[in-house]
Design goal:
The protein has helices at residues 71-79, 101-104, 179-186, 223-232, 254-257, 273-277, 311-323; strands at 7-12, 34-44, 59-67, 86-89, 112-116, 141-147, 164-169, 192-196, 214-218, 238-241, 263-266, 287-290, 329-331. The protein is built from seven helices and 13 strands. It is globular, with a radius of gyration of 22 Å. The longest helix has 13 residues, at 311-323. The chain is of the alpha/beta class and 344 residues long.
């Protein structure tokens, strides 16, 4: 049975020891393709257990793990996994790898990379550079967590194949320089963009690539910013709108600004019934995900929260189903892959 297992998640609890040989038994999974190591509170001093997996592992996720091994050891261990197409490494800032190129040079098949950036303040000229090839990478999806680093367009040149960019900013209060302007100027052909935090949307809305079909905005924005977005991205199909301020004045604008939407993710608690039901005007919409499907039954006791759809949301969902002839599927409970990292 073990020989045909392709996906494993490893969780460790306080008191367990990585040296007890348990993780070494991973070598018994001869066809293991996807490994997720998470929620491990005992320090991880070595990644040698990865070496027997080097010939077949294609996806590796390490998150919420206390890494105490030297950065050089980690680079060597991951560099052996030459068949990786997806790498996710999230940490608390204790790991200092000077450049990603020291890892990427060996991972020639890598398509998806998710990396914690808390230790970087400036990205060096060779941060993404791959000296083994022509300087270009095959990365199509890049996620950067806790990002607040100076960057130039020259640094980003190796990312010419990038289709999807997700940036989770380190600070909710932005600094004097808007790094998103540099990223968007250097990457004019993105299909998907996810921005969390950082500068207000107004600082870079007029630089959004017209090629975008998917956009996530968890930022400070105003109604007039969405109008700029609609002009820059006329063919947007997927929108996740979660502004820092209330979205009550924004939802009513969506049918007019983004008529091609197929999927939409919003919060509803401060949206009027009328504005919510106006979403029926989105003729191509097939999936609506409500992100705040909880309510407080007793307004005098805000600590009492029920984490399920409110009677109001159930009524609105029923009305929207009826008005769209059940064309729109409304999701009120997010269903996550158990191996999906909760940082993103």
């Amino acid at each position: 049975m073990w020989a045909v297992c392709r996906c494993v998640q490893v969780r460790r609890k306080t008191g367990d020891d990585w040296r007890d040989g348990v993780v070494d038994e991973l070598k018994l999974f001869q066809q293991l393709r996807h490994l997720c190591v998470t929620s491990c509170y005992t320090p991880m001093k070595s990644l040698n257990f990865l070496l027997p997996l080097s010939h077949h592992l294609t996806q590796l996720s390490i998150c919420n793990v206390q890494l105490t091994c030297p950065a050089s050891h980690l680079v060597v261990a991951i560099s052996q996994l030459t068949r990786l197409t997806s790498l996710l490494l999230h940490h608390d800032g204790s790991l200092r790898v000077p450049t990603l190129s020291s890892v990427l040079i060996h991972l020639t098949e890598l398509k998806h990379l998710s990396w914690t950036m808390i230790t970087y303040r400036t990205l060096s000229h060779d941060f993404f550079f791959s000296p083994a090839g022509d300087g270009g990478l095959q990365l199509s999806d890049l996620q950067l967590l806790n990002y607040d680093a100076m960057v130039t367009q020259e640094v980003l040149q190796p990312l010419s194949c990038l289709h999807s960019l997700s940036i989770f900013h380190l600070y909710s209060v932005p600094g004097p320089i808007c790094h998103m302007q540099t990223w968007l100027t250097a990457l004019p052909h993105l299909y998907s963009l996810n921005v969390h935090g950082g500068h207000p949307l107004a600082a870079y809305a007029d630089l959004l690539p017209s090629s975008l079909i998917s956009l996530t905005l968890c930022v400070d924005l105003q109604p007039e910013d969405l109008q700029v977005v609609s002009l820059r991205v006329p063919h947007l199909e997927h929108l996740h709108l979660e502004p820092w301020s209330s979205s009550s004045s924004l939802v009513r604008l969506l049918p007019q600004l983004f008529p091609h939407l197929r999927t939409l993710r919003i919060r509803h608690n401060h949206v009027s019934d009328e504005d919510f039901l106006q979403l029926q005007l989105l003729q191509r919409l097939d999936t609506l995900e409500v992100l705040d499907s909880y309510y407080t039954p007793d307004q005098s006791d805000p600590s009492w929260v029920v984490y399920e759809p409110s009677p109001r949301l159930l009524r609105l969902t029923s009305d929207l189903h009826r008005q769209t002839n059940h064309r729109v599927r409304v999701l009120t409970n997010s269903h996550r892959d158990p191996l999906t990292c909760h940082c993103v």
